[in-house]
Design a protein that fits this description.
This protein is of the alpha/beta class. It has 13 helices and 17 strands. The strands form four sheets. The protein has an eight-stranded mixed β-sheet, sandwiched between helices. One of its GO terms (molecular function) is arylsulfatase activity.
């Protein structure tokens, strides 16, 4: 068959439950309609709940310890191991070399301009890249405003509206070509700062005054948790100042941001139809990771594997495949491009092992996670998540074990309890078997620095001064 086009609509920090939990208050009419025409992968997980390493895994198909990008990129400066190495080939380059027109709009977050260095030229970057977008200068806000947690825009539009408009402008040109194309539309939303147009904030005005997540608690108040969860590692993590009203407004603006993005997705989906792409184009919707939004007292994300940050939405629409199906096999973010390429009829780009990673071929019953660094600090965590149990291991911190049936909020760490030692040892053995197969250096012996210590020994102020090379 002729190779199909590929479009990836990629969001940032979108929680799984908004689209998969029955009765969830998020108002998402366009994405719910899309779910009816797509296949929904209910057990989709990121490789690591951190933007840059997760995106590096997406575009290379490799795990963080394999591609070497284990920390975030910050503009033109790089934390150690924060920039995707030029020798790490991406699927975008492989598609281009196979005759696809490749286009990219939005957040790259793998190093300023480095996508252009790879010869991908049909690019509109908006995170400090070489062809930046500029937000409208007349954006104004209502009070109260508590950035980055919440802010109601009364005049102007978030930058993502410009990103999607630029992507829509590309569609007729891409559709008219004799070559198949791959387009990535990469948004900032709903990552903080939660600056949201007033009409979408108003959708959640009836949120109860005492709203907090079921597993909310005062930060650092839960017993039996690893040292990595005992302090804030970024200014936004310190939530001691958050009142009940702050948490309510934060949830209101986060979900409002999701609803705004849903409207953008609806515009884009309609533009696809207008461009005549419905019968020739795969369309996937997903996110790089989730958002804590008050769970366990945390905001944003951090060095942990809670469901709120690990589980991601994953929907794929393919022409000729009936929509509305929900699949429950476990799938990973870093296997998405092999899946899309295989389903698009371009499987000759893939080796035999990559083809077997397709979501439609996989029968995985577990997800595996990694976490190594954040903001220049060291963390060493590996994890496994089965249907009922989740286990996390670290060479320099407490182990974690949760029974997701009995404790879906992951409040009680069972790792040290005598009644759960057999389960914990079984999961640890399975995790280490996976680490060995994936050539994870952490599976071998070695010494490890204290939790949260700086990777290169420099102080915090110097962590932003790494060279680009």
């Amino acid at each position: 068959m002729a190779r199909q086009n590929i479009i990836l609509f990629l969001t940032d920090q979108w929680r799984w439950d908004t689209l998969n939990e029955a009765g969830h208050p998020a108002i998402l009419p366009n994405l719910r309609a899309f779910r009816a025409e797509a296949t929904n992968f209910e057990n989709a997980f990121t490789t690591v709940p951190l933007c840059t390493p997760a995106r590096a895994s997406l575009f290379t198909g490799r795990l963080p310890h394999q591609h070497g990008t284990t920390d975030n990129v910050q503009g033109k400066s790089f934390y150690p191991h924060g920039k995707l190495h030029p020798k790490q080939t991406t699927y975008l380059e492989r598609l281009r070399d196979a005759g696809y027109n490749v286009a990219f709009v939005g957040k790259w977050h793998l190093g300023d301009g480095t996508i252009l260095d790879r010869g991908i030229e049909d690019v509109v970057l908006s995170d400090g890249g070489d062809t930046p977008l500029t937000a409208a200068s007349d954006v104004s806000f209502a009070e109260p405003r508590k950035s980055p947690y919440y802010g109601t825009i009364t005049d102007g539009e978030p930058l993502d509206g410009i990103r999607v408009a630029r992507a829509i402008e590309m569609l007729p040109r891409l559709a008219a070509s004799d070559q198949p194309f791959c387009l990535v539309v990469s948004l900032h939303a709903p990552h903080f700062p939660h600056h949201v147009p007033a009409e979408f904030v108003a959708l959640y005005d009836d949120l109860p005054a005492d709203y907090v997540p079921k597993n909310w608690c005062r930060q650092f108040a839960e017993p039996g948790k690893p040292l990595a969860q005992s302090r804030p590692w970024h200014a936004v993590h310190d939530t001691a100042h958050m009142s009940a009203e702050d948490w309510r407004r934060t949830a209101q603006h986060y979900w409002g941001f999701c609803s705004y993005t849903d409207a953008l997705f609806g515009r884009f989906r309609a533009a696809m139809t207008e461009a005549g792409l419905d019968e020739s184009t795969l369309l996937a919707f997903t996110s790089d990771h989730g958002e804590m939004l008050g769970a366990h007292g945390w905001f944003d994300k951090g060095p942990f594997f809670y469901e709120e940050v690990m589980r991601i939405p994953m929907m794929v629409r393919q022409p000729g495949v009936a929509g509305g199906e929900t699949r429950r096999n476990f799938v990973s973010f870093h296997d998405l491009f092999p899946t899309l390429i295989e389903r698009a009829g371009a499987e000759t780009l893939l080796d035999a092992a990559e083809r077997e990673r397709s979501y439609w071929r996989s029968d995985n019953d577990a997800a595996f996670y990694t976490y190594d660094a954040y903001q220049g600090r060291q963390f060493r965590f590996r994890g496994i998540r089965e249907t009922r149990y989740k286990y996390a291991w670290s060479p320099h911190d407490l182990e974690e074990l949760y029974d997701l049936d009995a404790d879906p909020g992951e409040r009680r760490n069972l790792a040290s309890e005598p009644t759960h030692q057999v389960i914990g040892q079984r999961l640890k053995a399975r995790l280490f078997d996976w680490m060995t197969r994936e050539n994870d250096w952490l599976s071998g012996p070695g010494s490890h620095p204290p939790v949260g210590s700086y990777v290169d020994g420099r102080d915090a102020g110097e962590q932003h001064q790494h060279p680009q090379g």
